[in-house]
Design brief:
This protein is of the alpha/beta class and 264 residues long. The protein has one domain: 3-Layer(aba) Sandwich (Rossmann fold), CATH 3.40.50. It is 36% helix and 20% strand. It has helices spanning 20-41, 59-68, 123-131, 157-173, 183-189, 209-227, 233-243, and strands at 49-53, 72-77, 91-95, 108-114, 134-146, 193-200, 254-261. Helix 2 links the parallel strand 1 and strand 2. The chain is globular. It starts with 19 loop residues before the first helix and ends with a strand. Pfam families: Methyltransf_12 (PF08242). Keywords: Methyltransferase, Transferase.
C-alpha cells in the first residue's frame, strides 16, 4: 500500500468543505432505509441503548430515536460539527477517534458503524474493540462498501473512474474495500454468534441520490483519482456525464452489512 498522507476528513472528505454534509446525506438517502430495515429485523427498539460510530451527519442516529424508539443514541465521530448543529432529545454527540486508546463511550445493546472501517488502516483490530462494547446479547452491525463489478466491468469512463477512485483513496487516505467480503468471518473471530450478512446494490438512475453521490464524491476525490494515472480530468468529466445518461447500464458499488450477537 502506498504511504497515505492523511486520514478520512483530513485530505479528501473534509467536514469544513462547503457541501460535505450534503454529500454525506445523499448516501443517507440511498442507504438509511436499508439500514433501518435490518436493525428493526434484528429487534432494535424501545429501551435500547445504541452507539453509532462514525455517525457523520447523524441520520441513522436520529432515525433510531424517531422510528425505532430507542432510549438513547451516542453518536461518535472524530468531528461532531454536523451532530451538534441541531439538538435532538436522546442523541449524545461523542467526539472521539475509535482507533484511540481513550475511546470508551460505555456499553451498548447495539453498536453500529457504516462506511467507517473501510477508511481505517487498523480496521481488523477495531472490530474486536467494537464487539467489546456490547452488553450480553447485544448486537454489532457493520456496513461497508463492496465493489463486486468494477474489476470485471467493460472498459469505459465509468469503470475507469471507479477504479481510479478506489486506487486514489487507497493511496491518499488508506481506504480499502477489498477486505469487506471477509467481514462476517471477522465478526465471528471476534467472538460474536449468529453472524450473517447481506448485500444491497442500489440502481444507478439519472438524477438519483446514488448517482449524485458518486458525482459529488468524484469531484472531491478528483485530485487523488488523476494522480493514479488511470484517468485525467476529461475522463472524470465524461464519467459524471455517464451517470446522467438514460442509456448508461453500469452497476454501482453496493453495501455489505454484517451482524453478530454477543454471547448472553
Amino acid at each position: 500500500m502506498a504511504q497515505h498522507a492523511g486520514r478520512y476528513g483530513e485530505r479528501v472528505f473534509r467536514p469544513e468543505d462547503t457541501g460535505e454534509d450534503s454529500r454525506i446525506d445523499l448516501g443517507a438517502l440511498v442507504y438509511d432505509a436499508v439500514t433501518m430495515d435490518r436493525l428493526r429485523q434484528l429487534g432494535v427498539g424501545p429501551g435500547w441503548r445504541c452507539l453509532d460510530v462514525g455517525a457523520g451527519t447523524g441520520s441513522v442516529a436520529r432515525r433510531l430515536l424517531r422510528e425505532a424508539g430507542v432510549a438513547e443514541v451516542v453518536a461518535a465521530d472524530r468531528d461532531v460539527r454536523f451532530l451538534t448543529a441541531e439538538k435532538v432529545a436522546g442523541l449524545t454527540p461523542y467526539e472521539s477517534d475509535v482507533t484511540s486508546e481513550d475511546f470508551a463511550p460505555g456499553r451498548f445493546d447495539l453498536v453500529h458503524a457504516r462506511f467507517l472501517l473501510m477508511h481505517l488502516p487498523d480496521r481488523v483490530q477495531v472490530i474486536p474493540r467494537l464487539a467489546g462494547l456490547l452488553t450480553p446479547g447485544g448486537i454489532l452491525v457493520v456496513s461497508d462498501a463492496v465493489d463486486l463489478t468494477t474489476a470485471y466491468a467493460p472498459d469505459g469512463p465509468y469503470a475507469a473512474a471507479m477504479r481510479a477512485m478506489w486506487q486514489g483513496l487507497r493511496d491518499t487516505i488508506g481506504t480499502d474495500v477489498t477486505w469487506v467480503p471477509r467481514c462476517p468471518q471477522l465478526l465471528q473471530d471476534a467472538g460474536l454468534e449468529s453472524v450473517a450478512a447481506e448485500i444491497h446494490v442500489p440502481p444507478l438512475v439519472p438524477g438519483s441520490p446514488i448517482s449524485r453521490f458518486w458525482a459529488e464524491t468524484w469531484q472531491r476525490a478528483r485530485e487523488a483519482m488523476v494522480a493514479t494515472g488511470l484517468v485525467d480530468d476529461a475522463d472524470v468529466d465524461e464519467a459524471v456525464r455517464c451517470l446522467d445518461s438514460p442509456a448508461f447500464t453500469g452497476l454501482s458499488p453496493g453495501m455489505l452489512t454484517a451482524w453478530g450477537r454477543a454471547p448472553d
